[in-house]
Write a structure and sequence with these properties.
The protein is α+β, with helices and mostly antiparallel strands. 19% of the residues lie in helices and 16% in strands. The longest helix is centred in the first third of the chain and has 24 residues.
Length: 261
Amino acid sequence: MIPLPVLILIGVVLSILIGFGSYQFYFKDWKSCDWGYGCPTPSAPTPSTPSGPAPAPCDVNQHIKGGVCVACGDGYINPAGDDPAEYTDTFCKQCAENYHVKNRKCVKCEDKYTHAAGDEVTKGDTKCSKCAKDHRVFGSGDGGSCVHCSIDGVGYYRDAGDDRFGGATACVAPLSKGIPVKIQKCVNPNYRGSGCPKHWAMQTEDEFRTAYPGGWKDDKKCKYNQSMHTDERNWKVSCPGGDPDVRHSYTIPQEWIDQQN
C-alpha cells in the first residue's frame, strides 16, 4: 500500500500537469508557427538594386546573345528593339539585301540575281527575284533564269531589275563608243558662206554624241581613287569618261582637252 504522503505528492503533480495542458489547449494560438500551422510561405528573394541603369534595347541589325546585344551575322538584318531586360537570347529575323531564305537560313544570291531585303526566316523558302546588271530573263513561268547579255554578242547590255517571274526579256544592242577628237571647224561659227576659214578644234558634246552614240569608250572610265589620283583634276585627265557605272557618258572634261592641246 502506497503511503499517504506519496499519494498526496502524486496528486499535486497530476494537478499541475492537467492545469498546464488546459492552458495550452484554451489559450494557445493553434495557427501560430509554433504549432506548425499558418506559417508564411518563404518569398522569393527581393532582387538587388542594380548598380547602374538597365541595359538599353538593341539597335537595328542587332540581336540578344547571352543577355547582351550583338551584331547580326552576314546576310541577316533585324528591327531595333530586342530587350535584354526581357529576353536572354533572340535571333535576327530577316534576310539582308541580295539574300534569300533556304532551309530557315539566309543564303547569298548568285551574282546574276538581286533581291530586296526583308525575307522572313520563319516563313519558308524564297527565291532571288531580279536580274543583275547586264543580265536578262531566259524562260518564263515559275521563275525563269537570268543569263548574261554576252550570250547575245559583244557589247550587249541591260539595266538591272528584270523580274525573273515576269517573262523573258531582251538585252540591248551596243551603241558605238569612242573618244572625242579634233575636227575642222569654221573660225567664225556664224559664217554662212562657203569656203570659211577653218581651224582644228575639239568636238562639242553634241558632235561627240552624233559621232559615237554610246559615248566614251569603257577603257577611258574609272572610279575616283584618292590615293591614285590625289585630286579630281588628275582623275578627269586619266579617266575622262568618268564613272564606269554610267553606261553612256558624253561630258568632255576641260582638264582632258587642255592635255590634248
